[in-house]
Design goal:
By secondary structure, this protein is an alpha/beta fold. Strand 4, helix 5 and strand 5 form a beta-alpha-beta unit. The two termini are about 35 Å apart. The model has no long low-confidence stretch (mean pLDDT about 95).
Length: about 325
C-alpha cells in the first residue's frame, strides 16, 4: 500500500488519463505527487529522464504518458506513433528500475490484442494472432512496454504492473477533428452541427462495429486500486464488460448534445476492428467494478467540452 506521503510520479499528468489519476490521488489524500510538463521534461530524451529519476527518486510511478490518436492519426503517422511511444515508455520504465522505484504501473490499450481475438478478450490472448492494421504501430509499442515490465520482473524482481484500458473518454479529452478518438470526435461533430443547424452529419463506416467505453475517472480509481492491491506479470484489463454498436453510440451522443438532424454513413471509410470487448473477470475477482454509466459519462464529457472550448482546437 502506498503511504499518504509516498513520493508518486504521474507521467503524462496533462493528458486525459494522467490528469484523472492526479485527481484520484488527491481525492484519496495523497500529498506528494510529482509532475512535469513536456517543456520541463522530454520523456523521449533518455539522458533527461535518467537525470530526473536520479534527482527525484519517486517511489511509485504511473506511466500514463503516450502519443495517442484515432484511426486517421494512426494511419497517417505510424512511424511517429511507434517511435515516440517506444522511446518514452522505455526511458521511464528503465530509469524507474535503475533508480529503485518500488512499483510502476504501465498504462497500455486494448488495441494490443489481436484483431480477431475471441470475445470477450482475456489477458492471455495477447500475441496469439495478427493485430488490427490501422493501429498496429501503436499496439506494438504498447506490447513492448508491457513486455519490458514483465521481463524486468522476471530478471530483476521488480514489481512493475500493466493495465490495458478499453476505449476511454471524459474530462480533458482530445476533441481534434482528425486526431481524436471516436467518442470525443462525435461530441464535437454533433455539437458543431447543432450550432450550425446542419441537416445531417456523416459518420465513418457502416456503424456495425461494437465498442466498449470506460469513463476516465473510473479508470483512475482502478489504477490507484491496482497499485495498492495487485502484483503480477500478466496485464490487467480495465473496462466495463459492456459494449455498444457505433451506430447506437452516435445516436446516444446526438441525443445528449441535442442534435436532431439525419445521421448518414460513409461506407467507403474504414470500420476498424469489428469488435473489442474486454474480459473484466480479473478486476471483478479483485473486488473492483466501474461506477459511471455510458449515458451519464457522455453527459459529463459534453459538459466538459462546453466548459473548455480550447480543447477542441488541439
Amino acid at each position: 500500500m502506498m503511504s499518504p506521503d509516498a513520493k508518486i510520479y504521474v507521467a503524462g499528468h496533462r493528458g486525459m488519463v494522467g490528469s484523472a489519476i492526479v485527481r484520484e490521488l488527491q481525492r484519496q489524500g495523497y500529498t506528494n505527487i510529482i509532475t512535469r510538463t513536456h517543456a520541463e521534461l522530454d520523456l523521449c530524451n533518455q539522458a533527461d529522464v535518467e537525470r530526473f529519476f536520479a534527482e527525484n527518486r519517486p517511489e511509485y510511478v504511473f506511466l500514463a504518458a503516450a502519443k495517442v490518436g484515432g484511426i486517421v492519426a494512426n494511419n497517417n503517422a505510424p512511424a511517429d506513433f511507434m517511435y515516440q511511444n517506444m522511446m518514452l515508455e522505455m526511458n521511464v520504465i528503465h530509469s524507474a528500475w535503475r533508480n529503485g522505484c518500488r512499483k510502476l504501473e504501465f498504462l497500455g490499450s486494448s488495441c494490443i490484442y489481436p484483431r480477431l481475438a475471441p470475445q470477450p478478450m482475456k489477458e492471455d490472448c495477447l500475441l496469439t494472432s495478427a493485430l488490427e492494421p490501422t493501429n498496429e504501430a501503436y499496439a506494438l509499442a504498447k506490447i513492448s512496454g508491457l513486455k519490458y515490465c514483465e521481463y524486468l520482473n522476471s530478471q530483476y524482481g521488480t514489481d512493475f504492473i500493466s493495465v490495458m484500458p478499453t476505449n476511454l473518454y471524459g474530462p480533458n479529452d482530445n476533441y481534434h477533428p482528425e486526431h481524436s478518438h471516436v467518442l470525443p470526435a462525435l461530441i464535437r461533430r454533433f455539437h458543431e452541427a447543432k450550432v450550425a443547424g446542419a441537416p445531417s452529419v456523416t459518420c465513418w463506416g457502416d456503424g456495425t462495429p461494437l465498442r466498449e467505453f470506460l469513463y476516465v475517472d473510473d479508470l483512475a480509481n482502478l489504477c490507484v486500486f491496482l497499485m495498492n492491491n495487485y502484483s503480477g506479470n500478466e496485464t490487467v484489463n480495465a473496462g466495463t464488460g459492456k459494449e455498444i454498436t457505433i451506430k447506437e453510440l452516435t445516436e446516444l451522443v446526438a441525443r445528449t448534445v441535442g442534435y436532431d438532424g439525419e445521421i448518414l454513413w460513409d461506407t467507403t471509410r474504414p470500420n476498424g476492428t469489428p469488435r473489442k470487448l474486454l474480459d473484466v473477470s480479473k478486476t471483478r475477482a479483485l473486488g473492483w467494478t466501474y461506477s459511471t454509466s455510458l449515458p451519464e459519462g457522455i453527459a459529463l464529457a459534453y459538459a466538459d467540452f462546453l466548459n473548455n472550448p480550447v480543447r477542441a482546437e488541439r
